[in-house]
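It would be a great kindness if you could assist me with a short task in structural biology. The matter concerns a single protein, recorded as an amino acid sequence and a row of backbone structure tokens. Kindly check, if you would, that the fold set down in the tokens agrees with what the sequence suggests. Thank you for your consideration; the sequence and its tokens are set out here:
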Amino acid sequence: MSTAEHGPMTPWLRSALELLENPIAQINPDTNTFTIPRPISPVFIDNDRSYWNPTIIGLPSGSPAEYLLVARILTNGAYQQNVLCLANWTEIDQGLSCITKPEIINVAPTATRQCGQKGSGTWKVLANVPGFHDGRLMWTNRGEIMIFVGTQSRYTCFSLSLLTLSSPSFPTVFSINPQSPISFPTLTELSRPGSYAPMEKNWLLFFTPDHGTYVQYELSPSKRTISKLIGNGYTTPNLTSPAETPCLCHPYPFDEGRSDGGALTGDKVDHAGLGGWHQATNSLRASLCAREDQECIARGDMEVFIAIIQRKRHNSYGILSRYERVVVLWEGKPPFRILAIGKAKFLFQGETWSHSGQSFKTNHSPGKPSSRQPSSNALPAEVGSAAKALSKRKPSVDLQKPPFLFALSISYDHYRRYRVNGKYQSEPKDMYTGYLDDYLVVSLGIGDGGTGLVRLTVKDLISGLAVCPGFTSHGV
């Protein structure tokens, strides 16, 4: 596609992206990574079970807690089970702790007729595993709390469905916003244009100001499919142009243009698999302005969508050694063309990579004074007592020696509040959109049996961008 076909962006947006081209820290030339100076913190759920795949959202002012958390119980694989809880930051642990007893959340069982037709015994076995997997908790721009889950599919073997959690069916979540719209009162499977893989996963949702919902199904050097939800889980045909110039193209900017994909010494180099990126987190809408910069905000066309993508790396023995992650920015309007992508892969404070795996340190230090402000939420006496008791727990795994680390969700932090008459206030409908200086929470899976998080600003996450080729800086 020519530059003219790709289309212009406003000069203000182009300038904002160019100001974000320098990463927050120096790039390591050996690994083509940079470190965001924000620590990894533990998440405490309970001492009875081990958990993984946490997904976390910050809650607005007036909520019964600071965060809502959903995590998957580590089972023997014969079934899948997830819990939810309200959570607060605890000073004694410098981490997140459930302040309510974890509740088992189930979804209605779904049937599939496709798994046995794929010629693989693995798919046939999975057809009979109850429960959902890979839940992604998220706010919409209407103040609705949804969860995106993987279940057995009527179209293929496994696919994705949406469910509104802020409904009377889930009283703990409903208490956060009793006025929430309820778009998906029951589990609703989404369709997709084109052909299905046996297991569909890692789809990405965009929520637009006109209350539209769009789904991006995959992101690769050769393909990007996106459609709009039109009701009852059905979607439009693909909205992307066949002539769209790909931005995620090999050799990637974050691999320094190397044909081996920026492999480290001792990595297994799978040239065919270098395009194997998946959409790791949900999306958020962000203005490329500071919250108090009214002049910038008034220019308009400064809002984008952000998310994290990641790929797996294996060592010379074929064993998974690490996940590599970069940030992606999309236009704030359909068809959500990619504007920019990270020019280097990013790590968190204390994290290191080698061909043998990932390693990192956390800020977990019992008794260490917290740098965070205490919660202004008034909690019931029994919840406060539970928080004190739960703050003495240990993480479900040894966070000092994890096998690998992967991103799962992003959310605006509960600190992201408007100051009104000297007090912080925010509304549920505001929790999907923020500004450069707002704080985020990134939830992390630690191996196949651990949970963690990082708190950082939007600017921390999206600094170090490579603007996609083909965009001009001419006004619209």
Remarks:
- The two ends are 18 Å apart (CA to CA).
- Confidence is low (pLDDT under 50) at residues 1-6, 271-275, 365-402.
- The first strand starts at residue 33 and ends at 44.
